[in-house]
Amino acid sequence: YSSAVQKFSQTLQSFQFDFIGDTLTDDEINIAESFKEFAELLHEVELERSMMVQNASDLLIKPLENFRKEQIGFTKERKKKFEKDGEKFYSMLDRHLHLSSKKKESQLQEADLQVDKERHNFFESSLEYVYQIQEVQESKKFSIVEPVLAFLHSLFTYNNLTVELTQDFLPYKQQLQLSLQNTRNHFSSTREELEDLKKRMKEAPLTCKLPGQPTIEGYLYTQEKWALGISWVKYYCQYEKEAKTLRMTPMDQKPGAKQGALDLTLKSCVRRKTDSIDKRFCFDIETNERSGTITLQALSEANRRLWMEAMDGKEPIYHSPITKQEEMELNEVGFKFVRKCINAVETKGITTEGVYRTVGSNIQVQKLLNAFFDPKCPGDVDLQSGDWDIKTITSSLKFYLRNLSEPVMTYKLHKELVLAAKSENLDYRLGAIHALVYKLPDKNREMLELLIQHLVNICEHSRENLMSPSNMGVIFGPTLMRAQEDTVAAMMNIKFQNIVVEILIEHFGKIYSGPPEDTTAPPVPPPRVAARRHKPITISKRPLRERPVFFVASVEESGADRQGQTPNGSSIVGVEAPKPLHRSRLPAPRPGGDEPGRPLAEGRPDPRAEAEVGKQVARLQDGGAKPAGKAANGVVTSPALRTSTLQARRPAPRPGIYGREGEYDGVPKPRSHGDKPVIMRPPVRPPDPPCRTPVPPKLEQRPDLITGTAEEMPSSV
Hints:
The chain is α+β, with helices and mostly antiparallel strands.
C-alpha cells in the first residue's frame, strides 16, 4: 500500500496541466499547482509510515532479541556451568566418601582439600546461577515493557502527525474548493456564450467578415485559362481595405511546385452576371499587377456580397438577410428602467437566495420589456406591484444590458480591460481598471456606477442570498462587457471579463471615490519579470523537524557511558534508532496555575515535574518518605506518568503555555531553518551508578551470602 501511494505521489508531482489561452486566472493557477501540494502531503505521510515501520525493528524487535540473547542466553550458560560443576562436585564427593581411613594422613588431607575446592566452585556456580535468574526476573519487568512503550510512542506520534497534517490541510482544502467553484462558474458562463455563438454561426454560416474590422479573408476559387481549357484553382484570400491589397495563397499546390502567394493591388470590383458564366457566385476584379480581369467564385451568395462590400464593388450591396431585433439604447428611458429594477430588487428581493442567478420566464421577461419600452407610454410600469416577481425583474435587467447596441463598458476599452485583468500584478490590475473606468463616456460611467453600487449592496447580504462578488462577476461579466467579434478566442476571455466586474465590486469605494491622479492607464508590465505577488495557495508549511535519537532505557542520563545500558551493564539498544517527526503541541493555560508534573506536550515533560520526581526519588533512597503512589503490584508511579497517559488519550489544543525559552503566553517563538525542536523524555527513576553492577535486593541485604563459606549458606539459597 505504501509503495502504491508513493508511486501515486510521484505521478501527481510530474503531472502537468495544459490550458487554452495566453493567461491563467488566480484560481486556475491554484488548480494547476494543487497536484504538487497533494504529492508533498502524501510523500510526508508515507515517509512517516516508513519511519514507523523502521522503528518497529529498531525500538521493538532488536531490543527484545538482544534481551533474549544477552540475558536469557547468559542465564542458560550459567545453568550449564552450574550443572557441570555440581556433577563434578558430587562425583568427587562420592569418591571421597569411599576412601579408606587406613590411608596416610597426607593423602586424606589432600583429598579433603580437593573436595573443599570443588565444593567452593560448586557453591560459587550455584550462587551465580541463582543471582542470574533473579536478575533476569527483575530486569525483564522494564527491559521488555520499555521497547513496547517506545514503539507505541512512535506509533502514536505517527498518528498524531496525520492529525496535524489534516488540520493543516483543511484551510487549503477550503480555499481550493473555492477556486474549483469559481472555475466551474467561469466554465458555465463561457459554455453558455459558446452555445450562443454556435447557434448564431449555424444561422449565418460562412460569414467571414469580422464586425468592426476592415480585413476580410476566406476561400475563393479563381478561373485560370490554359491552352487546353479552363480550370478553377482554390486560393485562400486576404483583403485589406485601406491599402486595397489582396493576398492570394494557392491551396492546391502540386508536389514540387514552387508557386508562392500573390500580392495584388485592387483597381475595381464588379459582380459577374449570372447568364455570362456557368458558375454561381462569381465576380470580376481588376488589379495593377495583371492585365485583364480576374474572375473569382465565392462560396455562397452571402459570402459574395461580403467580398464585394469590402472591395467597394459596383453592384448594389445587399444587407444581410438575418433580421436583427431592434437594439436598445443607453438613453433616459433605459436609465429609468435600470433604476426601477434596482429599487424593486433592493426593496423586496435583496435577500432572495440566488438573486440574479435564477432565471425568470422568457414570456414574462418579454412582456415586461414590451410594456416598459412601449413608445406610446415608455416607463409606465410599476415594478413594486405583485404582478412582477424578482426573477422576472432581474432577468429583464440583464436582458436589457446585454442587448444594448454597445455594452456598458464599450467595445473600445474591451481589450485594455481584459489585458488589465490578465496582469499578474494585483496592484496593476486595480490601478489599470481604475484608470480605464474614467475613460468611459459619461453616461456609460454613470450607468456602471449605478449597477456596481447595486451589486455591492447585493453582496453585503451574501449570507442570505449566497451571492459573492465572484458569483456576481460570473453573471455580469458577459453582460457589461463583450467583444465586438464573435470568435471562440473572444469567448475564452469571458473569465477575465468576470474578474474585471469582481474587482469593480470589491474595490468600489476606491474606484468611485474619484479619478486616479493620472487618468491614463499605467504601462503594461512585462510578463513575469518578477515573482507573482499573488502566489498560489499552498498547504501551510511547518518548520523542519529533527528526527532525534530515541533510547528505550527511559532513565535520566547521569553520564554518556550510561546511555542505553541495563542495570547489569549490558546494552539494550545497540544503535541509535531514528524517531518519527514530532511537533510539540502545548496545552492551553489552566486557571489557577499549572499542575506539577503535567506534561507540556507529548514527549516533553514539565521541567518542574522532573525536579519534583527527583526529590521524591532522593527521599525514597534515604528511606525517609513514602512513594507518591503505588499500583497494585507495588510499582512506584509518579503524577507525571499518570497524567501523561491521560494526555495521550485526549488531543491537546494547539496554543501553548510555554515549551522552552522564548515560547510563552501562547505565542510560540518562530523557529529559524536550522533551529530544531527538542524532544524530552518523561522522568522515571534515577540511574544506577555508572560503573557498579547492581546486586538484587535480597542478596544485597545479606553480604555474608556472597562472602561466606558453603557451611554458612542458608538452605533457602
